[in-house]
Amino acid sequence: MAKLYEEMSAEELKAERKALKKRYDAFKARGLNLDMSRGKPGADQLDLSTGIYDIKYYVADGVDVRNYGMMDGIPSCKKLFGDLMGVEAKNVIVGPNASLTLMFDYISQCYTHGTGGNTPWCKLPEVKFLCPVPGYDRHFTILEHFGIKMINIEMKEDGPDMDAIEEYIKDESVKGMFCVPKYSNPQGITYSDDVVRRIASMKPAAKDFRIIWDDAYCVHDLVEDGDKLLNIFDILPEYDNEDMVIEVCSTSKITFPGAGVSAIIASDKNIAEIKKRLQAQTISYDKMNQHRHVQFFGNVDGILEHMKKHAAILKPKFDIVLKHLDEELSGRGIATWFDPKGGYFISLDVMEGCAKRVGELCKEAGVTLTTVGATYPYGIDPKNSNIRIAPSFPPVEELDVAAELLGICVRLACIEKLMANN
Q1: Distance of alpha carbon 222 from alpha carbon 45, whole angstroms
Q2: Which of 121, 139, 269, 288 is at a distance of 20 to 30 A from 109, taking alpha carbons?
Q3: pLDDT by residue (tens digit) across 289-319?
Q4: Residue 386: helix, strand or coil by DSSP?
């Protein structure tokens, strides 16, 4: 049985380090070049969707989709996304390949022209956003690009700290919040019904407060009994808050990250405002691709069946990482992690002050992790503790090696800190 590192004597720590260093040096001598840095689908996942290009007939809803028009998307694709997200097709705009573009464009709109008839954010002395942490680095990058001040909100087991959020939104300069409500990036936490209801019922001081509800992993279950997320659009009308939430989703991790289809879901008022902006921004997005996706899946059931194939590939990879974390780290008092039912990541919290050293050790031995600190605004993890693990891209054999090495590196980094403090 493993012994708590903090209870080990100096001699015990020294002996433990010596044994681990021997294993580490053996890995290092292999000249590894393994990547667990981004949540990219593996080649075997991408192969699942190659049939999408077998579509040859490009008339949809009585219109030749190869031509201009239908700025907000073809009706059949709007319906597909509407059915998937539990909203009416009229509240859907089908966009480009990436929901990230839709989020950036919406923040741009608020920044330069405002939303709901309110003052453009660029004309205000200060604009702040709430950011549940650890979170998605691309969200933080968007906000930093516009000079929007980011405020850390601690994630709890059922979602973000609502007490803190409800206090911050009393400040009129707090204009919004980014969320990944199902299988949060990176922890894999799904917001509870109570948290969704508290979010939907909020009464921010800012009339133009907007929640970017990034439902990136809406159908990305790893197990049969995946988490269920309450549809916030069913709740918002109870509090006259229909305009507060802007939801986005995409097929980036369903079909192809570089050639998928995204969608933005919003209230009637917000949809009209976004369409007005789109009239200046584009003539139409890729309707041929929208049509291919509709023909390939047919309906939501087709998407769900397709996602079971993804799960069959991904679940063994998650299991490998979790197995090594358990074997290397359990019972030592130096790390905690969450076993998610879906999504794309495993979030590992190591002994405070050790995460960067873990990253350095992994890199020296040929394993690339997500940059330590990236899961926090400005790249600053105040505890230097969180590491995002992305199991999806490496082949199983490489992942097995990388996960074992990661466990060794965590142990070495923590022993180094403990020995330095003795």
Answers
A1: 14
A2: 288
A3: 999 999 999 999 999 999 999 999 999 999 9
A4: strand
